[in-house]
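Example (one chain per record):
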Amino acid sequence: MPGKKSDGAVNLPGKGIWQNTFDPRIQSIPSYLPGERGSSFGLKRGYMTTAFPKSSKTKSNRFYLLNFLYNPSAVQVSHSIDAANQVMPAYTRSDQDSGTPLVAAGGTLSFSLLFDRSYEMSDPSQYDTIEGTYGVMADIHVLYNMVGINAPQVVWDENGGSSSDSSGETKNTVGIMQMNPVWARFGQARHAFTDKLPNLSRMEYFGYLNDIGITYSHFTQRMTPVRCAVSISMQLMSSAGWA
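Predicted structure:
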């Protein structure tokens, strides 16, 4: 878990930080409704998580979860037809062509997030944690891991052999952004109605992130970022075969 010095995330942010958690004091936000039908539902926060093919057996090696501190105030969704990448409806195709095209679905999703690590950075009891050391970089590195910017790489020495760093692990490098499929989930309905409505109606979207903008706004005396705003743009795709 993040926040524990023993998980190695300080030295290897590309592997160690797979989930971000928040100080309970900043999450104590009352909801408008105390509960539904006698139960305390509380405030449901959204998240993004790595997607996998349903047949995949390597989830533990590539799993990343970015929890939202605050739900976005606006979520923009657009759908359009791409003339250069047409997907014909099922009734126009051959009866033998029963597959679902794994291409962009002609839709985009955009929203903004805010992360704040004021409590962790000002609490002496959390100075040795990931969040208390790096501030909102603990959240940003989870995002970097999801899109492949943090990339493990084997470094070769002059003789052609592999050379590992002082911790005995493969070195992590700053790589390029990749088209890694993710799920963006914003809410939870009272009832699933899986036989009535598709996932889109529950504000659950599948695709890959194609644009990320990060603005760091507050810093400590060591220039550790305490707050940041993140704008995210996502290319929607068909979720057939993905979990």
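Caption: Helices lie at 13-16, 118-122, 130-134, 137-146.
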